[in-house]
């Protein structure tokens, strides 16, 4: 098995699992209790909060644990709308955001808010000047993802943060794909709110966090108990939070070396695909991209067939976001880049980890080359293209 879908989820690291196990056994007490077993759980949660905060240069009091990135995104947008709605009802985001942002924006539009969806260029980059021009007197929030989950493009977050701070507008970034993968400094980048998820960095599923800069007003996402400083009621997911903390510490220790290896694998894979398979297109920025992200469109084929045939060869990949993999519609991200429907339908996302090898990359290229050739042989579009002589 060659696993190339790490943007969807990652393998829980052994040291993370080891850190979590006591929380299911001898240290299972409720962290809200006053007896010693509960106090141990509370201490473990506090330790994890510090570890998660350290990844982005935040204070531990600015970290709120959630069930994942989707909840964090929903909370950020809805909380700002609720707390700052009297100041204005205009929000700015982009056309290539994760659906956790886009669908929340649609919800807010039904509730009296206006949303501007910024275009991106052919490489998936937001134009800071277009952002600046979209700002209105009633703009209360800018939400632009740190790195795109499909094409891996890294947005100009620091410049966007500076524009937002200069205009007195809150800035939220969905950093689910970037947290623990690339350096993030919330102070330097002037980020007011940030979403992250543990299972993207070798942590457990079902736990994430929302960073909220001190001084930013947010209401609770869940009502009930006093957990998460009265912002998210319900008994804490102690094993998940402890696992998140362990994964965050691991990510900080390994970030530089892990990123170097993934970039080498990424560039090697891209280069060999482009050299050996004609009529393909790299999606996203060639340099400003996540270390392990490869997204390529192959003309004249259908992505679902490609995925099925790769799976038969023991290769796990995807055609876009894991949250929309069951959809027959072409990727909204690729369409925003200007790709035609046929090109978008033929896309393949391969997201690597430091556990992959050069030998695996060679095997992937070999199988891809054979599968693409076979699928094109069955494509009337490819046959017409060859007959037309447009191929040179």
How would you portray this structure in words?
The chain is of the alpha/beta class and 392 residues long. It is built from 13 helices and 12 strands. The chain has helices at residues 14-24, 36-56, 69-84, 99-109, 128-134, 157-166, 227-230, 238-276, 303-312, 332-336, 341-345, 358-377, 380-388, and strands spanning 2-3, 63-66, 90-94, 114-118, 139-143, 170-174, 193-197, 208-212, 280-282, 293-298, 315-316, 347-351. The chain has a 7-stranded mixed β-sheet, sandwiched between helices. The protein is globular and about 75 Å long. The protein starts with a strand and ends with a helix.
Number of helices: 13
**Mean pLDDT score:** 95
Whole-angstrom Rg: 22 Å
Would you tell me the structural class of the helices and strands? alpha/beta
Q: Between the first and last Cα atoms, what is the distance in angstroms?
A: 38 Å
How many beta-strand segments?
12
Run of helices and strands: EHHEHEHEHEHEEEHHEEHEHHEHH
Helix percentage:
40-55%
Largest sheet: 7 strands, mixed
Shape by Cα distribution: globular
Query: In percent, how much strand structure appears in the residues?
Result: 5-15%
Query: Any low-confidence stretches, pLDDT <50, length ≥5?
Result: none
Instruction: Give, in spatial order, the strands making up the sheet with the most strands.
Output: 2-8-7-6-5-3-4
């Amino acid at each position: 098995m060659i696993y190339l879908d790490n943007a969807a989820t990652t393998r829980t690291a052994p040291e993370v699992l080891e850190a979590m196990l006591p929380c299911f056994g001898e240290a299972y007490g409720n962290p809200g209790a006053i007896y010693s077993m509960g106090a141990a759980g509370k201490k473990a949660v506090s330790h994890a909060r510090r570890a998660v905060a350290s990844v982005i240069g935040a204070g531990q009091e600015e970290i709120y644990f959630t069930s994942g990135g989707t909840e964090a995104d929903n909370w950020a947008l809805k909380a700002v709308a609720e707390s700052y709605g009297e100041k204005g009802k205009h929000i700015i985001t982009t056309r290539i955001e994760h659906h956790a942002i886009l669908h929340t924006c649609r919800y807010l539009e039904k509730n009296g808010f206006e949303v501007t969806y910024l275009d991106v260029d052919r490489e998936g980059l937001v134009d800071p000047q277009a952002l600046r021009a979209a700002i209105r007197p009633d703009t209360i929030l800018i939400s632009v993802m740190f790195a795109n989950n499909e094409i891996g493009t890294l947005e100009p977050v620091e410049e966007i943060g500076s524009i937002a701070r200069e205009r007195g507008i809150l800035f939220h970034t969905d950093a689910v794909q970037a947290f623990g993968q690339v350096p993030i400094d919330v102070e330097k980048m002037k980020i007011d709110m940030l979403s992250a998820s543990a299972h993207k960095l070798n942590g457990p599923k079902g736990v994430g966090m929302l960073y909220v800069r001190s001084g930013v007003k947010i209401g609770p996402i869940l009502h009930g108990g006093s957990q998460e400083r009265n912002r998210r009621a319900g008994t804490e997911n102690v094993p998940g939070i402890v696992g998140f903390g362990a994964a965050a510490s691991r990510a900080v220790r390994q970030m530089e070396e892990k990123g170097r290896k993934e970039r080498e694998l990424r560039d090697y894979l891209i280069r060999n695909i482009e050299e050996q398979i004609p009529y393909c297109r790299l999606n996203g920025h060639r340099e400003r991209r996540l270390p392990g992200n490869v997204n390529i469109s192959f003309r004249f084929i259908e992505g679902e067939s490609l995925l099925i045939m790769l799976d038969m060869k023991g290769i796990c990949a995807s055609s876009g976001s894991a949250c929309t993999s069951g959809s027959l519609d072409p990727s909204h991200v690729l369409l925003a880049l200007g790709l035609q429907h046929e090109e978008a339908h033929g896309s393949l996302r391969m997201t690597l980890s430091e556990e992959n090898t050069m030998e695996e990359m060679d095997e992937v290229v070999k199988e891809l080359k054979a599968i693409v050739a076979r699928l094109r042989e069955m494509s009337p579009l490819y046959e017409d293209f060859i007959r037309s002589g447009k191929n040179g």
